[in-house]
Amino acid sequence: MSTSAAPTYDSSLVIDYPARDMTITVKAEMPCSLLQQILRQEGQTLPIDAASEQTTVGELVLQDHCGPRQFGYGTLRDYVIGVAAVDGFERLFHAGGRVVKNVAGYDLCKLLIGSNGTLAIITQVTLKLRPKPETSALVGLTFESVKQVEALLARLMSSATRPVAIDVLNPQATLNSLPRSPSQTFLLCVGYEGADREVRWQIETMLAEARAFEPRSAKTLIGSGAEPAWTELTDFAISGEMPTARSPLTFKASLLPSKTMEFLQLATESGISAKAHAGNGIVLGHLPSRVTTSAQAEPVLQPLSVLASSCRGSMSMLRVSSDWPIAMRRAGSSAGHDWSERIQRQLDPLGLFRE
Question: I need a labelling partner for 214 at 20 to 30 A (CA). Which of 37, 71, 84, 122 fits?
């Protein structure tokens, strides 16, 4: 922690903060919003989008939520370098730390990320940090068809610019900060961060590259004006809000990036409100409110599950209506399900952390 001045925040949740080393160790119950507040005082950040301001660091790790910025910065697996946790026998154990060494056996840091509390209870986390960018921007472009978006995405992969986010929302997915008219359009959101001059050059260059693909409209948000849009893109996974009612089920699909637009088109044809992290091959979707039972949901989800499985991808349910069968939480496909079950039996033989 910096010695130049006393901290202006409640440091009871901070275990160690050697700012010059670009690492911090905090208690798992620290809210992510407080963590970012602390890091801003040192001009640093954890470039992971928390799904909610109330999300704690421990929840962030266990849920492995990574928002739109994962395209440019990576996921929690790139930033969690140490954990302390309690296993099913109530034993405290540590894994990793500020200095990462080569060891044999399970990489417990990586295993706990995204484990949803099925392996252990995390008590503290050590994180690698990055300098906070000077400015942030989002460019929203609308297109009439998936084919147009797909062509521009291919161009962005070889662009002179370096986006930190590439998200695509289908016509059913709303974004208040980047409204679309008419509604039957796909919205491509491209994010940039860095020095102000650098960001503005990248925006101009990307818009020039995009003209050949004939976007219906384009809108640029910079600095504080972009914050609401970043928040909406991040919160999409937990909002579950349709234009008229709350969605009964939210899913996450992971597949090859080259198959993402095909998956998004299929979801669109089923009336699903969906958003794709197009550069990472991740799609989040909310079933339409007209789907009121699990029996109605199964034929809607089945084609999506088949497509994901065909490219060795997976689908998982993030949220399911409380009156639906618990089996729906495990619906979909998962190429690594059996492997995951074996790991759980090794680390939690009594099944104390399983549903």
Answer: 71
Rounded Cα distance between 102 and 141, Å, is 45
Residues 186/142, Cβ–Cβ less than 8 Å: yes
Count of structural domains, the chain: 3
Q: Tell me: the pLDDT tens digits for 137-163?
A: 999 999 999 999 999 999 999 999 999
Cα separation, 138 vs 81, whole angstroms: 30
- Predicted confidence (pLDDT) per residue in 68-106, tens digit: 999 999 999 999 999 999 987 888 989 887 765 555 556
- Same-domain pairing of 166 and 258: no
**How far is the CA of 36 from the CAs of 94, 266, 279, in angstroms?**
24, 37, 25
Helix (H, G, I), strand (E, B) or coil at 257: helix
User: Residue 242 has which token pair?
Assistant: 């349709």
% of the chain with per-residue pLDDT over 70: 86
Domain extent at residue 329: 240-337
Distance, in Å, from the CA atom of 309 to the CA atom of 164, rounded to the nearest integer, reads 28
**How many CA within 13 A on the CB side of residue 233?**
32
pLDDT tens for each residue of 315-329: 988 888 877 876 665
Domain CATH number, residue 302: 3.30.70
In a domain, 164, yes or no: yes
Within 8 A by CB and 6+ apart from 202, the residues are 161, 162, 163, 192, 194
Residue 244 has pLDDT above 70, yes or no: no
Regarding whether 34 and 120 lie in a shared domain, the answer is yes
φ/ψ of 137, rounded to 5, equals: -150, 155
CATH code of the domain in which 76 resides: 3.30.465.10
Question: What pLDDT is attached to residue 243?
Answer: 41
| 323 part of a folded domain | yes
Residue 325: is the preceding peptide bond cis (ω within 30°)? no
Amino acid letter, residue 35:
L
> pTM for this one?
0.88
Domain shared by 62 and 104, yes or no:
yes
